[in-house]
Protein backbone atom coordinates (compact mmCIF):
# COMPACT_ATOMS: atom_id res chain seq x y z
CA UNK A 1 0.00 0.00 0.00
CA UNK A 2 1.46 3.43 -0.90
CA UNK A 3 2.28 5.73 2.00
CA UNK A 4 0.33 8.90 2.61
CA UNK A 5 2.05 12.06 1.33
CA UNK A 6 2.64 15.24 3.33
CA UNK A 7 -0.07 17.07 1.43
CA UNK A 8 -2.68 14.59 2.67
CA UNK A 9 -1.37 14.75 6.22
CA UNK A 10 -1.54 18.52 6.15
CA UNK A 11 -5.09 18.32 4.85
CA UNK A 12 -6.07 15.99 7.69
CA UNK A 13 -4.35 18.11 10.31
CA UNK A 14 -5.66 21.51 9.24
CA UNK A 15 -8.95 21.26 7.35
CA UNK A 16 -12.38 21.05 8.98
CA UNK A 17 -14.47 18.00 8.22
CA UNK A 18 -17.51 18.46 5.98
CA UNK A 19 -20.90 18.51 7.70
CA UNK A 20 -23.16 15.57 7.10
CA UNK A 21 -26.77 15.89 5.90
CA UNK A 22 -27.87 14.65 9.33
CA UNK A 23 -26.03 17.51 10.99
CA UNK A 24 -27.84 19.96 8.72
CA UNK A 25 -31.32 18.64 9.48
CA UNK A 26 -31.88 20.31 12.91
CA UNK A 27 -31.19 23.73 11.40
CA UNK A 28 -33.87 23.25 8.74
CA UNK A 29 -36.50 21.59 10.92
CA UNK A 30 -38.05 24.81 12.29
CA UNK A 31 -38.86 26.03 8.78
CA UNK A 32 -41.58 23.43 8.28
CA UNK A 33 -43.65 22.63 5.21
CA UNK A 34 -42.71 21.88 1.61
CA UNK A 35 -40.10 24.67 1.38
CA UNK A 36 -38.11 23.21 4.27
CA UNK A 37 -38.17 19.72 2.75
CA UNK A 38 -37.00 21.10 -0.61
CA UNK A 39 -34.17 23.00 1.06
CA UNK A 40 -33.17 19.91 3.03
CA UNK A 41 -33.11 17.74 -0.11
CA UNK A 42 -31.04 20.37 -1.92
CA UNK A 43 -28.59 20.45 0.98
CA UNK A 44 -28.32 16.65 0.96
CA UNK A 45 -27.62 16.64 -2.81
CA UNK A 46 -24.96 19.31 -2.55
CA UNK A 47 -23.23 17.70 0.41
CA UNK A 48 -23.25 14.25 -1.20
CA UNK A 49 -21.69 15.75 -4.32
CA UNK A 50 -19.00 17.50 -2.27
CA UNK A 51 -18.17 14.42 -0.19
CA UNK A 52 -17.99 12.23 -3.29
CA UNK A 53 -15.01 14.05 -4.75
CA UNK A 54 -11.41 13.06 -4.12
CA UNK A 55 -9.73 15.31 -1.57
CA UNK A 56 -7.77 17.42 -4.06
CA UNK A 57 -10.44 17.82 -6.71
CA UNK A 58 -11.52 21.15 -5.24
CA UNK A 59 -11.10 24.18 -7.43
CA UNK A 60 -8.75 27.10 -6.84
CA UNK A 61 -11.70 29.18 -5.63
CA UNK A 62 -12.54 26.59 -2.95
CA UNK A 63 -8.90 26.20 -1.91
CA UNK A 64 -8.56 29.97 -1.49
CA UNK A 65 -10.89 29.75 1.52
CA UNK A 66 -8.30 27.68 3.40
CA UNK A 67 -5.35 29.81 2.38
CA UNK A 68 -5.06 32.00 5.46
CA UNK A 69 -5.05 29.12 7.95
CA UNK A 70 -2.51 27.13 5.94
CA UNK A 71 -0.17 29.93 4.89
CA UNK A 72 2.64 28.74 7.15
CA UNK A 73 2.56 25.28 5.56
CA UNK A 74 4.06 24.51 2.16
CA UNK A 75 0.86 24.64 0.09
CA UNK A 76 -0.30 21.35 -1.39
CA UNK A 77 -1.45 23.29 -4.44
CA UNK A 78 1.34 24.98 -6.41
CA UNK A 79 -0.11 27.44 -8.90
CA UNK A 80 0.94 26.75 -12.49
CA UNK A 81 2.36 23.29 -11.69
CA UNK A 82 0.78 20.18 -13.23
CA UNK A 83 0.73 17.98 -10.11
CA UNK A 84 -0.22 18.76 -6.55
CA UNK A 85 2.38 17.85 -3.93
CA UNK A 86 0.59 14.58 -3.18
CA UNK A 87 0.37 13.48 -6.81
CA UNK A 88 -3.11 14.63 -7.79
CA UNK A 89 -3.50 16.41 -11.12
CA UNK A 90 -3.94 20.16 -10.78
CA UNK A 91 -7.49 20.58 -12.03
CA UNK A 92 -7.05 24.32 -12.52
CA UNK A 93 -3.76 24.17 -14.40
CA UNK A 94 -5.06 25.20 -17.82
CA UNK A 95 -6.95 28.16 -16.40
CA UNK A 96 -3.92 29.22 -14.34
CA UNK A 97 -1.55 29.25 -17.32
CA UNK A 98 -4.09 30.85 -19.66
CA UNK A 99 -5.41 33.56 -17.34
CA UNK A 100 -2.43 34.16 -15.06
CA UNK A 101 -3.43 36.81 -12.54
CA UNK A 102 -6.28 37.89 -14.81
CA UNK A 103 -8.93 35.62 -13.27
CA UNK A 104 -11.45 38.31 -12.32
CA UNK A 105 -14.62 38.54 -14.39
CA UNK A 106 -15.03 34.83 -15.03
CA UNK A 107 -16.98 33.90 -11.90
CA UNK A 108 -20.17 31.89 -12.29
CA UNK A 109 -22.37 34.95 -11.74
CA UNK A 110 -20.33 37.31 -13.93
CA UNK A 111 -22.09 39.19 -16.73
CA UNK A 112 -21.61 36.96 -19.85
CA UNK A 113 -21.05 39.75 -22.36
CA UNK A 114 -18.35 41.33 -20.20
CA UNK A 115 -16.69 37.93 -19.69
CA UNK A 116 -16.68 37.22 -23.43
CA UNK A 117 -15.12 40.61 -24.14
CA UNK A 118 -12.47 39.98 -21.49
CA UNK A 119 -11.70 36.57 -22.98
CA UNK A 120 -11.26 38.09 -26.43
CA UNK A 121 -8.87 40.70 -25.00
CA UNK A 122 -6.75 37.83 -23.67
CA UNK A 123 -7.00 36.11 -27.05
CA UNK A 124 -5.60 39.25 -28.68
CA UNK A 125 -2.65 39.28 -26.29
CA UNK A 126 -1.81 35.63 -27.02
CA UNK A 127 -2.18 36.21 -30.77
CA UNK A 128 1.18 37.92 -31.12
CA UNK A 129 1.16 38.24 -34.93
CA UNK A 130 -2.49 39.44 -34.97
CA UNK A 131 -3.63 36.90 -37.57
CA UNK A 132 -6.75 36.08 -35.48
CA UNK A 133 -5.54 32.62 -34.60
CA UNK A 134 -3.27 31.20 -31.91
CA UNK A 135 -0.42 28.87 -32.84
CA UNK A 136 1.32 26.39 -30.54
CA UNK A 137 4.38 28.65 -30.39
CA UNK A 138 2.25 31.65 -29.39
CA UNK A 139 0.50 29.60 -26.73
CA UNK A 140 3.86 28.29 -25.48
CA UNK A 141 5.16 31.86 -25.09
CA UNK A 142 1.97 32.82 -23.25
CA UNK A 143 2.17 29.82 -20.89
CA UNK A 144 5.76 30.70 -20.00
CA UNK A 145 4.78 34.34 -19.40
CA UNK A 146 1.85 33.44 -17.14
CA UNK A 147 3.98 30.91 -15.26
CA UNK A 148 6.54 33.63 -14.61
CA UNK A 149 3.72 35.74 -13.14
CA UNK A 150 2.87 32.94 -10.72
CA UNK A 151 6.54 32.69 -9.80
CA UNK A 152 6.66 36.39 -8.96
CA UNK A 153 3.51 36.06 -6.84
CA UNK A 154 5.00 33.09 -4.96
CA UNK A 155 8.17 35.10 -4.25
CA UNK A 156 6.13 38.00 -2.84
CA UNK A 157 4.04 35.69 -0.63
CA UNK A 158 7.11 33.80 0.58
CA UNK A 159 8.79 37.08 1.54
CA UNK A 160 5.77 38.02 3.66
CA UNK A 161 5.64 34.60 5.35
CA UNK A 162 9.40 34.66 5.94
CA UNK A 163 9.04 37.90 7.90
CA UNK A 164 6.31 36.29 10.00
CA UNK A 165 8.49 33.33 11.03
CA UNK A 166 11.71 35.36 11.48
CA UNK A 167 10.87 37.19 14.73
CA UNK A 168 14.41 38.38 15.41
CA UNK A 169 14.82 39.70 11.86
CA UNK A 170 18.29 38.24 11.35
CA UNK A 171 17.49 37.04 7.83
CA UNK A 172 17.65 33.37 8.78
CA UNK A 173 14.96 31.09 10.19
CA UNK A 174 15.79 28.11 12.36
CA UNK A 175 13.81 24.91 12.36
CA UNK A 176 12.75 25.64 15.96
CA UNK A 177 11.50 29.14 15.04
CA UNK A 178 9.43 27.68 12.26
CA UNK A 179 8.16 24.85 14.47
CA UNK A 180 6.93 27.35 17.08
CA UNK A 181 5.01 29.36 14.46
CA UNK A 182 3.60 26.22 12.84
CA UNK A 183 2.25 24.83 16.14
CA UNK A 184 0.93 28.26 17.13
CA UNK A 185 -1.01 28.31 13.83
CA UNK A 186 -2.58 25.02 14.92
CA UNK A 187 -3.90 26.50 18.18
CA UNK A 188 -1.03 25.86 20.58
CA UNK A 189 0.19 28.59 22.92
CA UNK A 190 3.22 30.14 21.21
CA UNK A 191 5.12 31.06 24.39
CA UNK A 192 4.47 27.67 25.97
CA UNK A 193 5.68 25.83 22.85
CA UNK A 194 8.79 28.03 22.66
CA UNK A 195 9.63 27.25 26.30
CA UNK A 196 9.15 23.51 25.77
CA UNK A 197 11.41 23.51 22.70
CA UNK A 198 14.05 25.61 24.47
CA UNK A 199 14.11 23.25 27.45
CA UNK A 200 13.76 20.13 25.27
CA UNK A 201 10.53 19.11 26.97
CA UNK A 202 7.82 16.90 25.43
CA UNK A 203 5.56 19.00 23.21
CA UNK A 204 2.48 16.84 23.90
CA UNK A 205 1.11 17.09 20.36
CA UNK A 206 -1.15 14.58 18.67
CA UNK A 207 0.22 11.83 16.43
CA UNK A 208 -1.02 13.31 13.16
CA UNK A 209 0.54 16.71 13.84
CA UNK A 210 3.79 15.01 14.83
CA UNK A 211 3.79 13.12 11.53
CA UNK A 212 3.21 16.36 9.63
CA UNK A 213 6.16 17.93 11.46
CA UNK A 214 8.42 15.01 10.56
CA UNK A 215 7.54 15.37 6.88
CA UNK A 216 8.08 19.13 7.08
CA UNK A 217 11.49 18.59 8.68
CA UNK A 218 12.50 16.33 5.77
CA UNK A 219 11.48 19.13 3.41
CA UNK A 220 13.35 21.66 5.58
CA UNK A 221 16.56 19.59 5.28
CA UNK A 222 16.15 19.44 1.52
CA UNK A 223 15.70 23.21 1.21
CA UNK A 224 18.77 23.86 3.39
CA UNK A 225 21.50 24.43 0.80
CA UNK A 226 25.06 23.26 1.50
CA UNK A 227 26.69 23.74 3.87
CA UNK A 228 23.61 22.56 5.84
CA UNK A 229 23.01 24.44 9.09
CA UNK A 230 19.23 23.99 9.55
CA UNK A 231 18.91 27.76 9.09
CA UNK A 232 16.97 28.84 6.02
CA UNK A 233 17.68 32.10 4.25
CA UNK A 234 14.86 33.89 2.47
CA UNK A 235 15.81 32.15 -0.78
CA UNK A 236 15.95 28.73 0.88
CA UNK A 237 12.62 29.40 2.60
CA UNK A 238 11.12 30.10 -0.82
CA UNK A 239 12.29 26.65 -1.95
CA UNK A 240 10.75 25.15 1.20
CA UNK A 241 7.34 26.70 0.51
CA UNK A 242 7.54 26.52 -3.29
CA UNK A 243 9.68 23.61 -4.54
CA UNK A 244 8.96 24.62 -8.15
CA UNK A 245 11.56 27.36 -7.67
CA UNK A 246 14.41 24.93 -7.06
CA UNK A 247 15.60 22.00 -9.17
CA UNK A 248 16.73 20.19 -6.04
CA UNK A 249 13.34 20.61 -4.41
CA UNK A 250 11.58 19.55 -7.62
CA UNK A 251 13.60 16.34 -7.44
CA UNK A 252 12.57 15.89 -3.82
CA UNK A 253 8.89 16.46 -4.66
CA UNK A 254 9.08 13.97 -7.56
CA UNK A 255 10.71 11.46 -5.22
CA UNK A 256 7.90 11.89 -2.68
CA UNK A 257 5.20 11.45 -5.34
CA UNK A 258 6.83 8.31 -6.68
CA UNK A 259 7.16 7.00 -3.12
CA UNK A 260 3.44 7.55 -2.56
CA UNK A 261 2.30 5.94 -5.82
CA UNK A 262 4.95 3.27 -6.42
CA UNK A 263 3.41 -0.06 -5.43
CA UNK A 264 6.13 -2.51 -6.49
CA UNK A 265 9.06 -0.58 -5.03
CA UNK A 266 11.03 -0.14 -8.28
CA UNK A 267 11.13 3.68 -7.83
CA UNK A 268 9.38 4.19 -11.16
CA UNK A 269 5.74 4.56 -12.10
CA UNK A 270 3.80 2.27 -14.40
CA UNK A 271 0.49 3.35 -15.91
CA UNK A 272 -1.57 1.18 -13.48
CA UNK A 273 0.27 2.75 -10.53
CA UNK A 274 -0.28 6.27 -11.80
CA UNK A 275 -3.99 5.88 -12.53
CA UNK A 276 -4.85 4.04 -9.31
CA UNK A 277 -6.41 6.16 -6.58
CA UNK A 278 -3.84 6.65 -3.78
CA UNK A 279 -4.88 5.24 -0.42
CA UNK A 280 -6.76 7.77 1.71
CA UNK A 281 -7.49 10.32 -1.02
CA UNK A 282 -11.17 9.48 -1.55
CA UNK A 283 -13.47 10.20 1.33
CA UNK A 284 -15.95 7.41 0.64
CA UNK A 285 -16.56 4.47 -1.68
CA UNK A 286 -19.23 6.37 -3.58
CA UNK A 287 -16.65 8.95 -4.54
CA UNK A 288 -14.32 6.29 -5.90
CA UNK A 289 -17.12 4.61 -7.85
CA UNK A 290 -18.34 7.76 -9.61
CA UNK A 291 -14.99 9.41 -10.32
CA UNK A 292 -14.60 7.99 -13.83
CA UNK A 293 -12.80 11.14 -14.94
CA UNK A 294 -9.86 10.33 -12.66
CA UNK A 295 -8.70 7.35 -14.71
CA UNK A 296 -9.35 9.04 -18.05
CA UNK A 297 -7.49 12.23 -17.17
CA UNK A 298 -4.52 10.50 -15.59
CA UNK A 299 -4.17 7.97 -18.41
CA UNK A 300 -4.05 10.77 -20.98
CA UNK A 301 -1.56 12.76 -18.91
CA UNK A 302 0.69 9.72 -18.43
CA UNK A 303 0.67 8.57 -22.05
CA UNK A 304 0.76 11.92 -23.83
CA UNK A 305 2.83 14.17 -21.58
CA UNK A 306 4.74 12.51 -18.73
CA UNK A 307 6.09 9.35 -20.41
CA UNK A 308 8.41 11.19 -22.79
CA UNK A 309 9.89 8.10 -24.49
CA UNK A 310 6.52 6.25 -24.53
CA UNK A 311 7.95 3.07 -23.01
CA UNK A 312 5.10 2.69 -20.51
CA UNK A 313 7.27 3.66 -17.53
CA UNK A 314 7.78 7.07 -15.93
CA UNK A 315 11.23 7.57 -14.45
CA UNK A 316 12.24 10.13 -11.82
CA UNK A 317 13.84 12.30 -14.53
CA UNK A 318 10.69 12.24 -16.69
CA UNK A 319 8.53 13.22 -13.73
CA UNK A 320 10.89 16.07 -12.80
CA UNK A 321 10.83 17.46 -16.34
CA UNK A 322 7.06 17.21 -16.48
CA UNK A 323 6.63 19.02 -13.17
CA UNK A 324 9.12 21.80 -13.93
CA UNK A 325 6.86 24.76 -14.82
CA UNK A 326 9.69 26.56 -16.64
CA UNK A 327 10.52 23.64 -18.92
CA UNK A 328 10.03 25.07 -22.43
CA UNK A 329 9.59 21.66 -24.07
CA UNK A 330 6.83 20.77 -21.58
CA UNK A 331 5.23 24.18 -22.15
CA UNK A 332 5.15 23.50 -25.90
CA UNK A 333 3.54 20.10 -25.32
CA UNK A 334 0.97 21.73 -23.07
CA UNK A 335 0.28 24.37 -25.69
CA UNK A 336 -0.39 21.69 -28.30
CA UNK A 337 -2.67 19.81 -25.90
CA UNK A 338 -4.62 22.95 -25.05
CA UNK A 339 -5.10 23.77 -28.71
CA UNK A 340 -6.18 20.19 -29.49
CA UNK A 341 -9.00 20.40 -26.93
CA UNK A 342 -10.78 23.20 -28.80
CA UNK A 343 -9.44 22.81 -32.36
CA UNK A 344 -12.70 21.78 -34.02
CA UNK A 345 -11.59 22.44 -37.60
CA UNK A 346 -8.34 20.51 -37.04
CA UNK A 347 -6.07 23.22 -38.45
CA UNK A 348 -3.77 23.14 -35.37
CA UNK A 349 -4.66 26.70 -34.42
CA UNK A 350 -7.12 28.25 -31.96
CA UNK A 351 -9.60 30.69 -33.42
CA UNK A 352 -11.90 33.12 -31.54
CA UNK A 353 -15.02 30.99 -32.03
CA UNK A 354 -13.23 27.92 -30.64
CA UNK A 355 -11.90 29.71 -27.56
CA UNK A 356 -15.36 31.11 -26.80
CA UNK A 357 -17.05 27.77 -27.36
CA UNK A 358 -14.61 25.98 -25.04
CA UNK A 359 -14.41 28.86 -22.57
CA UNK A 360 -15.00 26.54 -19.61
CA UNK A 361 -11.69 24.79 -20.32
CA UNK A 362 -9.78 28.09 -20.48
CA UNK A 363 -11.58 30.14 -17.82
CA UNK A 364 -13.64 27.78 -15.66
CA UNK A 365 -16.86 29.45 -16.84
CA UNK A 366 -19.17 28.52 -19.68
CA UNK A 367 -19.97 31.56 -21.82
CA UNK A 368 -23.12 31.18 -23.91
CA UNK A 369 -23.83 32.51 -27.42
CA UNK A 370 -20.19 32.12 -28.43
CA UNK A 371 -20.77 31.92 -32.20
CA UNK A 372 -23.01 34.95 -32.45
CA UNK A 373 -21.03 37.10 -30.04
CA UNK A 374 -17.54 36.52 -31.44
CA UNK A 375 -17.99 39.24 -34.05
CA UNK A 376 -19.34 41.63 -31.43
CA UNK A 377 -16.45 41.05 -29.02
CA UNK A 378 -13.45 40.68 -31.37
TrEMBL record:
Record-linked SMART domains = EFh (SM00054)
Q: Does the keyword Signal apply?
A: yes
Location within or outside the cell: Golgi apparatus lumen
Q: Which UniProt keywords apply?
A: Calcium, Glycoprotein, Golgi apparatus, Metal-binding, Repeat, Signal
Q: Which residues form the EF-hand domain?
A: 114-149, 153-188, 249-284, 294-329
GO terms (molecular function) for this protein are:
calcium ion binding
An example Gene Ontology cellular component term from the record? Golgi lumen
Q: Which PANTHER family match?
A: 45 KDA CALCIUM-BINDING PROTEIN, RETICULOCALBIN
What protein family does this chain belong to? Belongs to the CREC family.
* Listed name of the protein: 45 kDa calcium-binding protein
Source species of the chain: Sus scrofa
UniProt lists the gene as: SDF4
